[in-house]
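Before the break, one more example. Copy the sequence into your notebook; we will annotate it together after we see the structure.
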Amino acid sequence: MILDLFAGPGGWSCALAALGIRDVGLEWDPWACKTRAAAGQLTVRTDVAMYPTHPFVGRVTGLIASPPCQAWSMAGKRLGLLDQPLVHQAVADLAAGRDTREKLLASCRDPRSLLAAEPMRYLHALHAEGGPQWVAMEEVPDVLPLWKQYASILRSWGFSVWTGILNAADYGVPQTRRRAILLASRTRTAAPPPPTHAKVAEPVSLFGPGRARWVSMAEALGWGATDRPTPTVCAGGGPGGGPEPFPSGARKTLTDARDRGTWQSRPETVVLQSRREGAGWAARHGSRENRPAGGPAPTFTAEAHRWSWSLRSNNQANATVRHIDEPAGTLFFGHRANECIWIAEPPKTSAAEQERSAPESIRITDTEAGILQSFPRDYPWQGTKGQRFSQIGNAVPPLLAAHLLAPHLPATLNPADFTLAA
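Here is what the structure looks like once it is written out:
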């Protein structure tokens, strides 16, 4: 079998399914497990750190691991960086057959930090019986030094290993998501898959066709197509698209506005903006907290089509701004500071015209966010909006995963299996 540790909502499993193969995922989060079940993926709901390894000994040919990144991610407090020496110690001890996790965990500033050592517990147990044949692991870039420690140990066990940072956009994902990758194999030379895309399209040469240009958000979302999902107009909300700000019956959609002839789609002016702004943004665009509970939903004026749309994904100090004809930046979800909201930037007109024509904010939908992670448009996300967005933000992009796994499998990767705007 192929064993997927910290399987989440199924990024790796979705990639394997496209390649005609199934895995068994271990996952703790109940809503991620429900999503996996709805997608038809095999799952054991369990704490990876507590589950015994003996059921898998002698049975696993491939091991996949994407430990939770919250302790290391730039979207969080990054206490994992402070705990890194403890994690390195745990990996070294587990590789030698010594389980010191309980002692080391007591000293960790973030209890999730030590989860990055769990793959070594499984690897040590499986290696004793001659498996697995290959390993694929993924995490945020700051975990690369830990992957290099894993690589040193795996090489001493007879594996060929490659570690490094890959950009998901180089493999057709409409998002410049950079991740630390470890690839190891007992049967072939480990190497990163050749990139299929580049920031600038490459011309045909004597060596064959060049790489295609990075997939843009417009291409992935099918912007302007008749089947494009219509986001809900809102005035804020909870973490990652949480509670609706309007009471039942007061919500309006862009479809309503368009049907009234008061809003026109102009996809060429859309901008995806990952902006970390606090009170300054509210001061410029108006507070979203003072709307009366029974107040009407926002409406669009005839001038709204002149505005450039942006995606505000957090309210911190730094920002990533992307136009619709570029890939998205890395999408973060799961915390109030990481809300993803389509906002409008004003046209170059007078302040009075801007105020008169200002449209309201539009929360990105889970469908749109999933597509920007290269999941199928109809992927069956489960849970509340916040739970669905959290799953999406933490998932491995299936298209990137497929490129990483295909060389180890008796399968051929067909990019057509990942038609994002279908």
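Residues 2-201+395-418 form a domain with the Rossmann fold fold (CATH 3.40.50.150). The mean pLDDT is 76. Try to locate both features in your own notes.
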